[in-house]
């Protein structure tokens, strides 16, 4: 029996980078949280404490900030691709890099009925995400981009049913033909990089907004028989809209709203007053996949299963 070093990676987590474009009086803001992770032959650092191959996490941080200026930071996907490719291409021991990014959106403050040039109000909606993996060198190099969002909180007050489910001795849930449906949606979609083409010329912003719009439209307009059905229809609509997406993975907590019992007060409750239950929550997860899509390779892989 021998005890050996397993998979490992290292990097600087959660670099909170705010990039301002101030070339004109109308400033632009990009507010992101960037995590880097480098993979390669870093065994000596663990086994003997030899740092010869280790590019410090501090250097990774400095590079992430510097690239926000040097290479620009507008769309998070190409920024992540450039940063990941730099670590793999220019830092000898690095064979793979994964960059995870969250973006916090700001909207312009409105002053005297007009959008302000340099004052912003944080948007309370979803957080945009990206996970970029670059591996290998030269002609063997592969790049993966997963776009996404989390915390997109959606609620509809009708147009949702849940009945006809399997019942056993422990089933107490009443069927319903009219309920509130609410979730805080997480979605991640995988780009087919050959079809994206030049990342610098691709419309990352338009695609992001288009996916979000489609997801919201399906949630609103589909008369839902279960959150499972809603997820599938959302994913299908997104893949139909964008042929360069291979798959979409979604995680949807079912934020239960239970009708509150007002009968002790002699009141009827015709789907008007609910208790918004915090936990436990149903957790519905589904992926929707194009069956001829290229294999995912390491696009989703998190080394060592580290969270
Ligand atoms: O949309 C739903 N899907 C379920 O699987 C489920 N289970 C449950 O108790 N409520 C719901 N709602």
UniProtKB/TrEMBL annotation:
5-hydroxyisourate binds at residues 57, 162, 179, 254. GO terms for biological process: purine nucleobase metabolic process; urate catabolic process. Urate binds at residues 57-58, 162, 179, 228, 254. The active site is at 12 (charge relay system), 57 (charge relay system), 256 (charge relay system). Pathway: Purine metabolism; urate degradation; (S)-allantoin from urate: step 1/3. It comes from the Bacteria. InterPro entries: Uricase, Uricase_CS. Its EC number is 1.7.3.3. Transmembrane segments: none annotated. O2 binds at residues 57, 254. It is an enzyme of class 1 (oxidoreductase). One of its GO terms (molecular function) is urate oxidase activity. SUPFAM superfamilies: Tetrahydrobiopterin biosynthesis enzymes-like. Keywords: Oxidoreductase, Purine metabolism. Catalyzes the oxidation of uric acid to 5-hydroxyisourate, which is further processed to form (S)-allantoin. Belongs to the uricase family. This is Uricase. It comes from Herbiconiux flava. The lineage of its organism: Bacteria, Bacillati, Actinomycetota, Actinomycetes, Micrococcales.
